[in-house]
Amino acid sequence: MPSFRLTSAARCLWAFLLLSPLLPAAHAQRAAGPGRPTDFLDPAFHKGRRELLRQALPAGSVAVLFANPVRNRANDVNYLYHPHPDLYYLTGYDEPDAVLVLFKEPQTLGGQAGVTEALFVQPRDPKAELWTGRRLGTEGAKQQLKLQYVADNTTFATADIRWAGFARIHFLDLPTDVRDDTQDPADLFDLVAAFRRQAAVPADYDARREAVYLTMQREGVVNATALRPYLENQMKAQPALATDPYVLGYLQATTDATRLQALTTRPPSRHENTSLNDALDALRAVKTPEELALLRRAVRISAVGQQEVMKALRPDMGEMEVQGLHEYIYKKYGAEFEGYPSIVGGGNNACILHYETNDKPRLGNDLILMDCGAEYHGYTADVTRTVPPSGKFSPAQRQIYELVLAAQEAGIRECRAGNEFRAPGKAAQQVVAAGLQKLGIIAAPEEMRRYFPHGTSHYLGLDVHDRGAYGPLQAGNVITVEPGIYIPEGSPCDKKWWNIGVRIEDDILITTAGPENLSKEAPRTVAEVEAMMARPSALDALRLPALK
């Protein structure tokens, strides 16, 4: 799935031990009711993550993380709830209306001394559970999640947390579009309001502005040359910064001494989210053996999905039907969700990067691009294959496909620890530019971006575009390599290339021995794809009655 995310570099927090693809990691049951899967991450994993994050906090700090909002789909129907990836990563808790508080130094809370972590969860409610499913409640969370301190979320507003005593209060972006359930005194709306009030978060607090301030503090003297254009760009993106006295004072400084003096005038604030984001980026970017076991399963399910759909594919199928086959296979293997809306585009639709409508009723002989990923216990794959429904590539389709494949191979070769994050993308772009020019589709290499407008790589994990520092690649990173060429109808080239969109995407584990393609089971070469499509499908016998 193409990504456009950019962020700053951060250092790895621990050494990574490579896990054999068949070695089971330590898992434990974490469920609100009987009969659920038993291979969720062990509470010890989450405890270790919390402790690493707490160690990264500066002295005198507290960190606060909220659950995701419940999202309404229509009228009285909500979307199936998806936990906040950071909260899930740190606790294993997957219910709404919760808040986690981590203290750098031990506190006394609810009469309990030595508290460094507190989780406030929604209480048990038999009436609500009859309609929407079982809840862990405080006792269930204590027993299964093993946090040091767990309390009912209705007590968060009155909990004896001495907010005024913390030198720094760290939090992620606070949700501002949350519905207030007036019948629930401790829903997410109320939890955020209580935090804002008790932690004295200014009404005009702006996380983006604070991030600029923090960048100025870090780079203002040691990297002044690069900081100036950064600030000028930020002033365009955030017009309020154009009149900000702190920013203007720094820009008016002309020597290191005057810059240092300007930096001392930063408006005082105990509230910020950049440091917490940076720490979570560094932690989540390097996968542990336990995480890799789940991620490998998600990727393998997705690769098998590509195999089986290739076998079953026919020109008379529609995009939605193909999407359904992928997602059926995910469910068959126990994947709870798709990691993102499936992208299944035939012909010109394949030239829309994040095409999600998937409603073309008949594919015909156009290529079909299938960018799909299973999510298994929170960890998502991201695998793309582009294939001919007829089972055979046309000459033009084959030429574009093999160019994209050559670009991907070049990108994968650059997936080595120590290389810059953009190295795979740069290698792929060079191949695509040269190839398009050779085919006569472009006249000069700089025109390549018309047909290959995105990067090749993003981190993969609890989010399809996962957290990470986007600095040098490290052993334990899992990233995508996904070059593409998209030639929509009306493009300024020979019409024989029109309506060809090709993307090939694999999920690559960075190891000390080189790149490992986790999704290699999904056929990639023209010969492999055509051979797979010639095989019989278990779905061939599936014939539903016609609807009249």
UniProtKB/TrEMBL annotation:
Its EC number is 3.4.11.9. It is an enzyme of class 3 (hydrolase). GO terms for molecular function: aminopeptidase activity. Residues 1-28 form the signal peptide. Pfam families: AMP_N (PF05195), Peptidase_M24 (PF00557). It catalyses: Release of any N-terminal amino acid, including proline, that is linked to proline, even from a dipeptide or tripeptide. Belongs to the peptidase M24B family. This is Xaa-Pro aminopeptidase. It comes from Hymenobacter canadensis.
